[in-house]
Amino acid sequence: MWCQAANLIDDGPTWKTNPIGMILSSRKKRLSSLFNANSDLIGFIDGAWKISEENKIQAGIGGYLKDAKGNLILVFSGPVLASSASDCEFRAICFLINKIVSSQWRGKSCIIYSDSIVLVKDFQQSKFKIDQSELENSNSFILLSKVEFKKIDRVLNWEAGNLAKEGALKDKILFAWC
């Protein structure tokens, strides 16, 4: 019942007979509804940041990009130097924007989902100032006008979250165009 109260699942007839199936079905339905947006590309990013038992910062980014039909275009995961969890999320956004700008997808409209409400609000209100050195291509600023930033529930952003956590343990950033 708490899943329903937290709006993690839909209220449906199979809840009492198959709760696990209901949870998985709800998550899939909620994720697929994101692709009904009027955008060419949809990106999901996350950052992972923690201090290890050896008192070392472990930070990673991860995410993926899909087209409007839900086809996977790009996946990435790897370590970053970051001072905070918010800094990790920011670096994940910059990484994704850099990859889009340097690809055939340049100039397309894009929605980028993050589970960081602070970062999303800052981007939406243009309070977040991006240092040009963070972006590999000066044309990235032009692209930002076609990018929309939206908040997503952490539950729905679990794939990007796992990629970020795995990325914190890697030696270098890995990415693949699909």
Automatic annotation (TrEMBL):
Record domain RNase H type-1: where: 46-159
Superkingdom per UniProt: Eukaryota
InterPro entries assigned to the protein according to its UniProt record, in alphabetical order: RNase_H-like_dom_plant, RNaseH-like_sf, RNaseH_domain, RNaseH_sf
Pfam families xref list: RVT_3
Chain segments annotated as coiled-coil in the UniProt record: none
One GO molecular-function entry: nucleic acid binding
The name this protein goes by in its record: RNase H type-1 domain-containing protein
Source organism of the structure: Heracleum sosnowskyi
